[in-house]
Structure formats: structure tokens, C-alpha cells
Design goal:
single chain, 459 residues, alpha/beta, Rossmann fold, FAD/NAD(P)-binding domain, 2 domains, six-stranded parallel sheet, five-stranded parallel sheet, 14 helices, 20% strand
Length: 459
């Protein structure tokens, strides 16, 4: 069956949105149809959390960026072609254009806004100075244009709460000597801040034991390869833990890695990274700012439930980083489940909203890796295509190119060609840097827009 011609808007140009656009384009082409896809992004540059949510010392991320680049770069921006994908950056839906205005102009709208805010940690003291959300810190060291250019790094002893990959990223960047980040794409202002860091000890705390860690093997291995940092573990946390009985091969590898670190002799390094298990946070203490953090020692009962042992432990720290998960990014005009931080949906179809879909973290919550995002998009696109074939999607009621509306409003939107210009500029900065790098990120939003659209200033 040949599909009718489709116009689809995707809100969010991170992996979820790009995968959705690529899969939709291929699905329509396979059915002999024609599709025009506009990919809206609130930032001037694409790639979402891959650009602004992953530590800069992850070389494997380059492969993901290259893959996403190829997907967007593959389709010509010509009306004569049967399928096009346009990147429209620096446009926030709900600020520069309403969701309803998109729905009037497209057969379907896919929400792929992800999750960029920190999930709440409901303990006393989270409001103290020196208590930070991990997402905010990650945004700073990744050069996000909408966060402050400086970050307070005057704490000697730091607590990181969480047992996932974000917690490891935060801990590794805090513990790592700035000299070892000089060859990455870390922005210059971030490098200068890290070079003045006072940190000596980073403590990572997990509620459960080593057999329940949420890391991936590569993240854990990278932690052990940080030069000039001693890793400290505690034998009591490993009582009864046997890698041979691990639930899967990945966990078996990680438990063997941790056991190997337990046998490492201390080197007397100037920085130490402590991994603590069986610690549930109870309160952050301090007179106006963080001075310590209190935990309840935990264990697992006969039914596998996490319970308190009644033992309380307190650690002197001057900063706390909360890496307990992300919370979905609401889109103005779309339904939103406050308790879960997602758009309520059934396999990607937004409840009660024909022609409105969701994919990625805003669909299922902030869990899973990049591979899950791709399979997630496949499910959503499958339903969108089925709805198009069944004639469920309404025809757009407003004609004309959406760029005309943005031009009328003097919105300084960026394009794919603009991103290619910004990408080339950042790479040139890296090549000319005194510490040669693949790129040096441009941080200010107006500078990104100026490079992407010469002569046009950001509003």
C-alpha cells in the first residue's frame, strides 16, 4: 500500500528525534510515499544529550555522533526529493512557536524532548548551598549555553549520590586531574575551572550492594583508568558477593573489576575516589551550606527488599551531587504525567491526542541506553505509519512553510548548513588550540547563532 504524502514535525533533535526521523523516512520510502520532516531543536546545535549530557572524555560517543550526523546529512533539502529532513534549531516549542501551531501545519507531531532536569531527592538539606543536581553539573562541563560559565569547585570532600553511569561521569570528572582533559572537547572555561579545583576525595554512594549496580562495564573500566587517582573500596560491602553467581555476564565482568580494585595497593595519589555501597541518604547537614551527609546503612531481607539495618553513618563533605535520575521535559500544550515525568501514551500514541506521538525518554521515562532509544522509535514510528495507512491522520489546516512564520517573528533559527559551519568552526578552534583537540565547543548561544547564521543575532 502506497502511503499518502506526509508532513511531520519532530520536537527534539537528540538521538530519539533523529532516530525517529530516519526510521520514518525509510518506512515511507519503502512504501513508495513522500515525507517532509522538520526536526525542531531548542538549542542551536543538534544531538541533545549526546552533545550536552555525556562527559567529554568518552571517545565512544564520537561514533554515536558520527552515526547521527550521517542520518541527518543523508537527505537533500530539495522539494524535488521524495524525502527530506530539515534541522530547525534555536526554536523552542512553547516559546517561539506553539505546539498547536505545529499541529495545524503537519499531519503528525512527534515529541522527543527527552529529560534534562534532575529527579528530586526527598531528604532534608537538599536546598543547602553546595548541594547540586548532577544534570546541572554535566550541563556545565559540557558547555551548555544556558548555564553559568563558572562552577564552584572549592570543596575538598565531595559526595555523589547514585549508582548509575551519570554518577560515574560526575565522579570521574570531579576526581580527574584537569591536565588529563586537555585533549578533549571540554570548553576552555570548564578546563580553567577544573584546573583550580580543590577536590581531594570523591565519595560515590549507592543504596544497594555491588550486585545491583546500574553502571555499564565500559563506564566502570574507564573509572579505573583515571591517572593519579586511587580507588578505595570497603571489604564489608562485598560480604556474600560472588561474581560467579551474577545475574548476567555484564554484571559478572563488573564484579570482577571491582574485586580487582580491592586488591590494588594505595599509591599515595593526591586524589581518591571512594565507592560505597549499602548507603541510603537520610539528610544533608550544614549551617547554611553543606558540611556533612548522613546515611542509613542498608541490607536486603529474605524477600529481597531493601531495609535499614539501624546503623547510621555520617561523612564530612562540603558538596553533594545528586545523580538519582532525570525528569522529563514538559512541552507546553501537551499532556504530562507529573508523577512519572512523561507524556502519557500507549506505545508512543499520546493519550487522547490523534496525530501526536512520543518517543525516547519523554515516552518511557529516563531509563535505558542509546540502543533502547532506537527500538523505542521503531515502535512509535510503526504506529504512526499504521495510522497514516488507516487514514487516521488529519490533513494540515494551515498551508505554507513554517519557516515563513518563524521569519515573520524574527526568530533566529539555525539550519543544518548552519550546524556544519559551527561544527567546522569548533574543529578549527581545536586544531589551533595549544593542546590540540578534535574540537573546542563554542558555549554562548548568541555566538553559536552568529556562526551558524552570519549577521543574525539571537533574540
Amino acid at each position: 500500500m502506497t502511503l499518502p504524502s506526509l508532513r511531520v514535525a519532530i520536537v527534539g533533535a537528540g538521538p530519539a528525534g533523529i532516530y525517529a526521523g530516519n526510521l520514518l523516512s525509510n518506512a515511507v520510502a519503502d512504501r513508495g510515499g513522500r515525507v517532509e520532516i522538520d526536526l525542531f531543536e531548542s538549542l542551536p546545535a543538534p544531538y541533545g544529550l549526546i552533545r550536552y549530557g555525556v562527559a567529554p572524555d568518552h571517545p565512544r560517543i564520537k561514533g554515536i555522533v558520527n552515526s547521527l550526523h550521517e542520518m541527518l546529512n543523508a537527505f537533500p533539502h530539495s522539494d524535488a526529493d521524495r524525502r527530506t529532513i530539515r534541522f530547525i534549531g534555536n526554536v523552542e516549542v512553547g516559546r517561539d512557536i506553539a505546539l498547536e501551531e505545529l499541529r495545524e501545519r503537519y499531519h503528525a507531531v512527534i515529541l522527543a524532548t527527552g529529560a534534562i532536569r534532575d529527579a528530586a531527592l526527598g531528604i532534608p538539606g537538599v536546598e543547602l548551598a553546595g548541594s547540586y543536581g548532577a544534570a546541572d553539573f554535566v550541563a556545565w562541563f559540557d558547555g551548555h549555553p544556558d548555564v553559568a560559565r563558572t562552577w564552584p569547585l572549592d570543596a575538598r570532600e565531595v559526595a555523589v549520590i547514585g549508582n548509575g553511569n551519570v554518577a560515574l561521569d560526575v565522579a570521574r570528572v570531579l576526581a580527574k586531574h584537569a591536565v588529563d582533559l586537555r585533549t578533549t572537547e571540554v570548553p576552555d572555561n570548564v578546563l580553567a575551572g577544573l584546573e583550580s579545583s580543590a577536590v581531594t576525595d570523591v565519595h560515590v554512594f549507592g543504596r544497594r550492594g555491588p550486585a545491583d549496580i546500574k553502571f555499564t562495564p565500559i563506564e566502570l573500566r574507564e573509572l579505573g583508568e583515571v591517572p593519579g587517582v586511587d580507588i578505595v573500596l570497603h571489604d564489608e560491602d562485598f560480604d556474600g558477593v560472588d561474581p560467579a553467581t551474577a545475574a548476567n555476564n555484564q554484571l559478572k565482568i563488573m564484579l570482577r573489576t571491582l574485586n580487582g580494585w580491592r586488591d590494588r595497593p594505595a599509591t599515595g595519589a593526591s586524589r581518591r575516589l571512594h565507592l560505597h555501597f549499602w548507603h541510603a541518604p537520610e539528610a544533608i547537614e550544614g549551617d547554611g551550606r553543606v558540611e556533612s551527609i548522613r546515611f542509613s546503612r542498608t541490607a536486603v531481607d529474605a524477600d529481597g527488599a531493601l531495609v535499614s539495618t539501624g546503623e547510621v553513618r555520617e561523612y564530612r563533605v562540603q558538596a553533594v551531587y545528586r545523580a538519582v535520575g532525570y525528569y522529563g521535559t514538559r512541552v507546553s500544550g501537551a499532556p504530562f504525567d507529573e508523577s512519572r515525568g512523561v507524556v502519557p501514551n500507549d506505545e508512543g500514541r499520546v493519550h487522547g491526542e490523534a496525530g501526536l506521538y512520543a518517543t525516547g525518554w519523554i515516552k518511557r521515562g529516563p531509563v535505558g541506553l542509546i540502543g533502547h532509544t532506537k527500538s523505542d522509535a521503531l515502535e512509535t514510528i510503526g504506529h504512526l505509519v499504521a495510522d497514516a495507512e488507516a487514514g487516521v491522520l488529519a490533513e494540515p489546516v494551515v498551508a505554507g512553510d513554517v519557516l515563513e512564520l518563524l521569519d515573520e517573528r524574527e526568530t533566529a533559527y539555525t539550519t543544518w548548513d548552519g550546524w556544519l559551519a559551527l561544527d567546522a568552526h569548533e574543529r578549527a578552534l581545536g586544531a589551533g588550540h595549544r593542546h590540540v583537540r578534535e574540537r573546542v565547543k563554542v558555549v554562548p548561544r548568541d555566538e553559536q547563532v552568529a556562526i551558524s547564521r552570519p549577521g543574525v543575532l539571537a533574540p
